[in-house]
Design goal:
With about 230 residues, this protein is α+β, with helices and mostly antiparallel strands. It contains four helices and 13 strands.
Length: about 230
């Protein structure tokens, strides 16, 4: 089962220690890794379809990554071939912002979105959320809270009845991290320290973890909780 990692810092920082611990979980998720971090609003995205802890490029990437927003993913291939195109995070430009998205779980029956380039349900879920961000942008002021919340609700409405939806994700526009936990078998955790806030699907070494509230969209900005939705 895939794993997620996200870091929101009060200032530009490294998350190398946490990301080294994160890679130790790649033995059960050997089908690829991805890392995204922002500089001047633009994401730097690195991916490789190999096990993270056996990839020198992974360790080079986590040394290079210094930012106030860092997102990483290690993949267990449940949908789509083992290749870089199907590794998370995914990237799309929308309304002048550069979005990245990493997902753990599955959305049974989700239709392939026209913008999806790979073969995963995750990338189509990302594009559905982006469609809702565009559709409801007039409701938002400075964040995309309403659009993402509406997108989550639409996924539940369209695909959860009689099926199974696992929707853990970390996504960002380079300004705010949006993270969400909806998975019967996979809780998410967050930890706050002097550097900022880290979220993960694993209790990595060196952090004081707390359970992330399920079914509530959590917004992180500059190392602090910026918003928390009601239950969706």
């Amino acid at each position: 089962m895939c794993e997620l990692f996200g870091f929101s810092g009060g200032r530009e920082a490294s998350a190398e220690g946490g990301l080294r611990s994160f890679a130790e979980h790649s033995g059960r998720n050997p089908h690829g890794w991805g890392l995204a971090f922002y500089g001047d609003g633009m994401p730097v995205l690195m991916k490789k379809a190999v096990e993270a802890r056996r990839s020198p490029e992974y360790y080079d990437a986590i040394k290079l990554a210094r930012s106030d927003i860092i997102i990483s993913h290690i993949r267990h291939a449940s949908c789509g071939k083992i290749n870089a195109a199907n590794c998370h995070p995914f990237h799309q430009e929308l309304l002048g912002k550069h979005w990245v998205f990493a997902h753990n779980g599955h959305v049974d029956g989700v239709a392939r979105h026209p913008r999806t380039q790979g073969e995963t349900d995750s990338e189509s879920v990302f594009n559905i959320l982006l469609d809702n961000i565009a559709r409801y942008r007039s409701m938002d002021n400075g964040t995309s809270y309403h659009g993402i919340s509406k997108g989550i609700a639409s996924l539940f409405g369209d695909y959860e009845f009689g099926r199974q939806v696992g929707l853990n994700f970390v996504m960002s526009d380079g300004n705010v991290i949006y993270t969400f936990n909806h998975h019967a078998d996979k809780p998410m955790y967050y930890a706050h320290d002097a550097m900022g806030i880290t979220v993960s699907t694993q209790r990595l070494d060196g952090y004081a973890w707390e359970n992330m509230p399920a079914d509530r969209l959590l917004l992180l900005k500059k190392g602090e909780v910026y918003g928390l939705s009601d239950k969706i």
